[in-house]
Amino acid sequence: MTEVKIRLQQTDQVKKLVDFLTPCPYEVNLVSGRYTIDAKSLLGIYSLDLSNPLTLVIYSDDCDGLLRQLRALLPDCLVP
Question: 24: domain CATH number?
Answer without folding.
Answer: 3.30.1340.10
